[in-house]
Structures are given as C-alpha cells and as structure tokens.
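Question thread 4412

I'm putting together a teaching handout and wanted feedback from people who do this every day. The idea is simple: show students a protein as raw sequence, then show them the structure tokens that encode its fold, then repeat with a second protein so they can compare. Below is the first pair exactly as I plan to print it.
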Amino acid sequence: MQSLREIRELLAARGLTPRHRFGQNFLHDHGKIRELVDAADLQPGQTVLEVGPGTGALTDCLLEREVRVVAVEIDRDLASLIRDRFGDRVTLVEGDCLAKGRRLSSEVVAALEGSAFKLVANLPYQAASPLMASLLMHHPECLGQWVTIQKEVVDRLVAEPGTKAWGPLTAIVRAFASARRITTLPPGCFWPAPKVTSAMAELLPVASEHRPEDPDGFARFVTRLLSKRRKQIGGVLGQDIVTSLGIDATMRAETLGASKLIDIRDQLPSGHPLLQEQT
C-alpha cells in the first residue's frame, strides 16, 4: 500500500499537485484504509465501485481482496496515472460518476455490467451526498456503502429524530438504509490535510418492502416538510388530515422518524401541496 512519500512521488513524477476543485485530499493512513475495507466484508469476485481513486492507495487494498474494481476518476491526469499503475486489473471510467438526474452515468452503469456491487471509496466531499443518496434511491443493485466523508455529514446520517442534526438528508437516507459510524479520522490522515475532520460511515440498504415506492416524490415531500421542521405538524399538513392519520397535531416535523414519514406521505391525498412537483 502506498506511503505518503510514494503518493507525493507519483504526483511529482507527472508534474501534478492536489487539485482543490476536485476535492483531492489523499488518504494515506494504512490502518484507516484497512479498517474501511474490513468493514465492507468483501468476498473474492465481488464488484466494488470506487469513486475518486486518486493515486490508488485504497485501490491497492481492494485488489488484495481479489475483488473486481470499477474505478471512476474525473481528473484526467489521475485517470492516466491509475491506468498506468493498474492496467487491466481495474475497470477505469474517466469522468463524472453521476449524470443529469443524479443517476449513475451510462459509462459507470456499463462498466458495472449489471452486477450487484458495493461502494467503497474515499469520496470527494462535494460529490459525497448526491452520490450516496442516488445509490440508495435509484440503484438497489448497490449492496451497501462504506465511505470516507466529512464528519459533519456522518453526524447527520447517524442522527436521531428530534436532534439538531436530523434533517432532510438524514430522513431521506434513513428511509432507504441503516447508518453506522465506523471511525473518525483527524485531518492528518490525509494529504493535504483538510480543514475539517472526516469520518467513515457504513450504509446498509433496508429490505425493499420497507422502502418508499416513489423515491423522488418521497425526497421532495421530506425536504418540504422538514423545511418547516419546528412547526406543529397540524399546521403544516392541515388539522383535518392530521386527525384522519391519527397523529398528534402538536408534534413537530423534526421529531418524525423515517418510517413515520413514509406512512404519512403514503396516506396524504394526492392533491396535497407537499406532494406537488414544482414547475
């Protein structure tokens, strides 16, 4: 596995430096990398999606587990480095992992070849939340996610209803998956060291029968409802509707868990303002 010195040398040999616009902070702590891969419980022959492989430190560890790695790199220079380092041992996709509509790009879908897969990645901060939500909502073939992201995001993912960190992202994610913090990483685990603390998280999809039937509609509903998180639910949904649903009208939206939000959304009349698509 690459040392920090080797990461620096790989970049310097190509005249490269970390690029802030791509969120490039290279994880070089071998113990943390192995902890993430161990948590994913990878089996030989499984397909793993790695977004943002950088210089390939995590990729090295994944290949040790005899899995098939589909690596997606938006930086052309780093994509060239990954291609030269790993050759045909890695299926490389050069470009953005998400297309319009926040679905996996057609290139990534083609590279995955219809296989069930796991996401194991040190994610660029700006790409983390959209990718994680997209995989949960639109790609049931993803068997789970094991990722390094900003600690603040992990705090939100594992938050409970009624707490300050509980919000639209948390409620949407938790409607589709359980969330667990694996470990916390100080800035010194990365080069260059970011200005924030990072953490590793595990997301495991819930059974299909417990998922919202209309993921995008559910996400819109939750986002609108929790924008009024501190208001009483009766005032937001309407007293008559709340009464018909058997909900305490004085409850606040921020106290509602994901399963309750799914129930409410499913039972609202189709013409309710919180269910309408914006034009």
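The second pair follows. I'd like the answer to focus on this one:
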Amino acid sequence: MIKLYDFPRSPYCQKVRLTLAEKDLSYEKIFVDLIKNEQKAPDFLRLNPYGKVPVLIDEDEVIYDSTIINEYLEDEYPHPPLMPEQSSERARVRMFEDFADNSFTAQSGLLVAELRKPAEQVDQERVQRYRTDLLRVLEFLERYLEGKEYIAGAFSLADLAFAPRLLILPNLGVEIPARLKNALAWIERLRQRPSIKQLQQELASL
C-alpha cells in the first residue's frame, strides 16, 4: 500500500494527489499538521531531512519532493502515461513543471500569505504586484498554448503542476482577462478532468 504524508492545503501535496488520482492508485493518507510543526518532528525528519511535505512511501521506497514523487509514480506506474515518449518533450514537461513550482505556485503562495493577514496589515501594493506576476505567467502560457489543448500537447505532469493554484485564482482576486482565450480554454479543460473536479470539491471543504 502506498502511503502519502500529506497536508491538504499544500499545493505540492495536491499535485501528488492529482497524479495518484489520474493513475487510479489506492493509497493511505497520513496527515501532517504543518500548523503544529509536525513536519519538524524527529520521526518525520527521518523520512525527509528537509522537513517538508509531501513524502511518499511505496513498499520500502521513501521519496520526497512533489516533482520527484510524480516522476517516480510515472516510472513505477506508467499507465496512463503523464509524460511524453520523446526525450525533448519530456524535458519540456520538466521545464514547465519547474516553471509552475517556482513562478506560479510559489508566487501564489506569497499572495495567499498576504491576504491572510489582518485587513489593516495587508500591503495592497504587494497584493497587486503578486496578482500581476500571476497574470504574466498566464500571458506567457497563452502564447505557448496556441494550437495546443495542453502544455505538452497531451495532458501531462506539467498541467498537473499548475492545476492546484489555478483552481483558487478567483479566491485570490485574480481575474483572467477574456483576451487570454487559450489559457481560459486550457483551464476549463483541466476543470473537466475527474481528478481536478475531486480536488476542487476537497478545496471547497477546507
């Protein structure tokens, strides 16, 4: 049985849960309360010395970091495939997954943190800057998605990397302009996938 050390609100954990759902894999979720710093407990640090979720255990294998976990799942459970066959296309998926993590998920995390502050402490200039940065990412994707249904042509780990934070953009006050037709169509296609519908339901209950 696969075990996933998980914090439901973490977009990186969500990214792994999406992959597990896409591959229809059964697993046990083990809640790690980041609010209580359980990720810093000695037992958890033996699994991941960085003290971060997610961590996946499959038989005797212990894997951490969402990107590495997802690639492990792709290698170990290749059907349905979430990576292309050609090495150049696989490299492109990896680049976009890295881009999602560092330029979209991380930036949205800064916006989430700012908006969670008491109203009198929220820096509106920062809020606007973070929203603008997120829209810049979507503008870049708009050009790249021209003529494509998904980032790598077929649905892949690259699309999954963007999905968790795409779902909460309305809650963050990020309004996607109608001119970004390719990006909007792509987001709608993502929303129709059963795995992402399930995640959206989970987010609504948090």
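Top answer:
Good format. For the second protein you could add a caption like this: The mean pLDDT is 95. Residues 67 and 199 are 18 Å apart (CA to CA).
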